[in-house]
Design brief:
alpha/beta, 8 helices, globular, binds D-xylitol-5-phosphate, binds zinc ion
Length: about 220
């Protein structure tokens, strides 16, 4: 499956957000990752529709929106109108996941479902055929700059096996603590959409993205 980098703007300097994003796009990052946090589902608060709306004007990257919010069905339409291309919701945050997935479909966007590190991978079997992307969190959601949870590698492999068994191979996105030093084992385990915040935006974003692209061989 195509390897895709999705830089998380959570780690960017918001005083230079447009310039930083343009560097990631010029260097080959096809997606841009928006970590939306509500202070309820996760302990932190990040940003919402207005930021997405303004950034959408400056880049043609795929807007990869990660809703770390309680009962995300309430905001699916708002994020779709603000410019989301992919809307990813948390399995643990939805009263009715099937209904939430249907709502994202109804607004014509791609559907992602994310599971936290403590949620068994086996839960994906019930909705695998309904979604376009599975996001396996490789840190506890809520903050950038955390360390990669090593058990995540087994979880990625387990997800690929479940997809194999169900003859339904879809994108597996991973998010949290991914750097040049651990990206190869993450790819080897079966992930193909890579979220990187600190690894891209702490330092020279253009060079950092190019380094990932080189490893991707894209
Ligand atoms: C956690 C966030 C982070 C962020 C990326 O809720 O979702 O994982 O995107 O963080 P780093 O800086 O580790 O790439
Ligand atoms: Zn994220």
């Amino acid at each position: 499956m195509k390897k895709i980098l999705s830089p998380s703007i959570l780690a960017a300097d918001f005083g230079y957000l447009k310039e930083e994003i343009e560097k990631t796009s010029a260097a080959g990052a096809a997606y841009l990752h928006f970590d939306v946090m509500d202070g309820l589902f996760v302990p932190s608060i990040s940003f919402g529709m207005p930021v997405l709306q303004s950034i959408k004007k400056y880049t043609d990257q795929v807007m990869d929106v990660h809703l770390m919010i309680q009962e995300p069905i309430r905001y699916v339409e708002d994020f779709a109108s603000a410019g989301a291309d992919i809307i990813t919701v948390h399995y643990e945050a939805c009263e009715n996941l099937k209904e939430t997935i249907a709502k994202i479909r109804a607004v014509g966007k791609k559907v992602g479902v994310s599971i936290k590190p403590g949620t068994p991978v086996t839960v994906i079997e019930e909705f695998l055929t309904d979604i376009d992307m599975l996001l396996i969190m490789t840190v506890e959601p809520g903050f950038g700059g955390q360390s990669f949870i090593p058990e995540s590698l087994e979880r990625i492999k387990e997800a690929r096996e479940i997809m194999e068994k169900n003859a339904r191979q879809i994108d597996i996105e991973v998010d949290g603590g991914i750097y040049l030093h651990n990206i190869e084992e993450v790819l080897a385990a079966g992930a193909n959409v890579i979220v990187a915040g600190s690894a891209v935006f702490k330092g020279d974003a253009m060079k950092n993205v190019k380094d990932f692209m080189e490893i991707f061989g894209e």
